[in-house]
Design a protein that fits this description.
Blueprint lengths: L4 E10 L2 E11 L3 E6 L6 H9 L6 E5 L6 E4 L13 H6 L3 H4 L7 H13 L15 H14 L4 E5 L7 H16 L3 E5 L3 H6 L2 E6 L2 E3 L10
Parallel strand pairs: 3-7, 3-8, 5-6, 6-7
Antiparallel strand pairs: 1-2, 1-4, 8-9
Length: 219
Amino acid sequence: MPSAIDLDDLSVRRGETLALDGVCACLPAAAVTAVVGGNGAGKSTLLDVLAGVLRPTSGCVDGLCGRTVAYVPQRSAVPDHLPLTIADTIAMGRWRERGPWRRLRAADRALVAAAAEQLGLTDLLAAPLSAVSGGQRQRALLAQGLVARADVLLVDEPTAGVDAATRLAVLQALATEAERGAVVVHATHEAAAVDRADAVLALSAGRVEVPAGAPGAAA
């Protein structure tokens, strides 16, 4: 059985701000954990630490060593002018295994096609990334994360600003990743995404809060 990731008294300082303050939590494998909290709560900082973008100021993260990580940022973090199609964007998820300049194998192309179908992007594969809607672009980035087949999938606000059908497809995709054994962690403001999660980690001002009645609340 894949192991969980444990946060042990994790603190991160961004300049003068203590963005995470002594966070202790367990992020289970083969499960979806929703990280919730208001703006400035520390959600994106936590994802950055798990992705290796930020180093903890103190404390540690146990269980990441030797595991592959796929990180899907918010769509606002992706430049609009990138000369990429939807298919190119999704295929980048295979670069870790294949390298950026090697031709995709049939198995890689099958993963790209399956992820596109799962997220309703099949008819848009030839479209430029810059020409599609924000929700379609976010789905393309999520598909990129899915085809990486990583041990850990991190997603920042995957359902923000999308319609109900897209939200359902995105949440089902996260659940499918968990079913194959991945640690899936996503930051969200949306109640529907929290309801579909297996565990909830609530943050407030960089500290852990456990909301009353949250399903499988992590602490």
